[in-house]
Write a structure and sequence with these properties.
Length: about 350
């Protein structure tokens, strides 16, 4: 059965309020966790690096998504009506921004995968000018904005995004005559970055397999990478570039590569979680699986997309640098944060 043509309506008050409570939990957890990520990067210079610029971009998108969830909470707490219990423009605007932020997330993950490929394959050539990084970040917002807003405005039949009378939430309008075309365009918006992600991590995997034997052999040289920070990798790379000692160059290169592979695994975990969270909604929205039960699961599949915004900080916490800064912040040991930024120094001095 076509989810758009089904007569089913998400009317059960228990299910609606249960979903609203889930949204509240996701919103609170996502806002707290992603704010922790942002503050960590602001306060610790050890976390100032190219990879974490995009991590911050991802966290900003997640914060915006979580901050808009209360709109749907209010709507879900009320019974289904022909019009939402909030202003129609609020419903439409929150839906558009949420869709854009999901697009920003997948484009940011694609950008991180490109960076991971560069640092693993060309560790000495990953320093990029600031103007290029700014344009790159801007693109992660402009591309999904154009792909989501332009079709919604251009397609006949009115704006595609807004209050969905079938499910009583803010999303696409299931009654819109061109909803299938819009969903197809949305799928393309997410499919292209996912292709980039798969290609980059496949190349990284091949590279890792190619060098694994060399890295095992190098372990006999007592190489330890536990003290290499992300912020120091560029300086180490410059040192390696100019040193004439072959053994030192070989040793330091392996330190960098091993460190970058650890980071790559962590970011690959973020990608896998994102795909797992968005996959259920893609399956039901694109009618890959059909039936009454599928139609009833649509609201919960949508909740999985929002869940992704809340779980990312827990994945970042697996990284030792983030984990240490998180712990020091939560225990208010501000003076023990490694390589404090000027902001942290100002705040600690002001407090004293």
């Amino acid at each position: 059965m076509n989810p758009q043509n089904s007569t089913f309506e998400f009317e059960d008050p228990i299910q609606r309020k249960s979903l609203a409570i889930i949204f509240i939990g996701i919103s609170i957890t996502g806002l707290a966790g992603n704010s922790l990520v942002l503050i960590s990067v602001i306060l610790c210079r050890k976390l100032h690096n190219l990879n974490n610029i995009f991590v911050v971009n991802l966290s900003i998108a997640d914060i915006i998504t979580c901050s808009l969830l209360p709109v749907n909470v209010v709507i879900l707490w009320n019974p289904i009506e022909d019009t939402p219990p909030v202003a129609e423009w609020i419903c439409t605007a929150s839906t558009a921004v949420n869709f854009i932020c999901v697009g920003v997330s997948v484009n940011t993950l694609a950008s991180i995968s490109v960076i991971r490929l560069l640092v693993v394959t060309r560790p000495l050539q990953t320093h990029k000018p600031r103007w290029l990084i700014r344009l790159w970040i801007l693109f992660t917002w402009l591309f999904p904005s154009a792909m989501i807003l332009l079709p919604a405005l251009i397609l006949p039949g009115g704006f595609v995004l807004g209050y969905n009378t079938k499910y009583g939430v803010c999303t696409q309008k299931s009654s819109h005559p061109y909803i299938s075309i819009y969903n197809g365009i949305n799928l393309l918006t997410f499919f292209l970055p996912l292709v980039v992600i798969i290609m980059c991590y496949t190349a990284i995997f091949i590279r890792h397999r190619h060098h694994s034997k060399k890295m095992i052999q190098s372990s006999g040289e007592n190489i330890s990478d536990s003290n290499i920070s992300l912020s120091s990798i560029y300086s180490i790379s410059q040192f390696v570039k100019h040193t004439s000692d072959t053994r030192i160059k070989h040793t330091m290169m392996f330190k960098i590569q091993r460190r970058q592979i650890q980071i790559t695994k962590n970011m690959l975990c973020v990608v896998c979680v994102f795909i797992l969270c968005i996959l259920p909604y893609v399956i039901v929205a694109q009618k890959i699986i059909q039936g009454d039960i599928v139609v009833r699961l649509v609201p919960y599949c949508g909740a999985f997309i929002y869940l992704n915004s809340a779980v990312n900080p827990f994945i970042y916490a697996r990284h030792p640098n983030f984990r240490r800064v998180f712990r020091l912040m939560l225990t208010c040991n501000w003076n023990e944060i490694p390589q404090p930024s000027m902001t942290l120094k100002f705040l600690t001095n002001y407090r004293i």
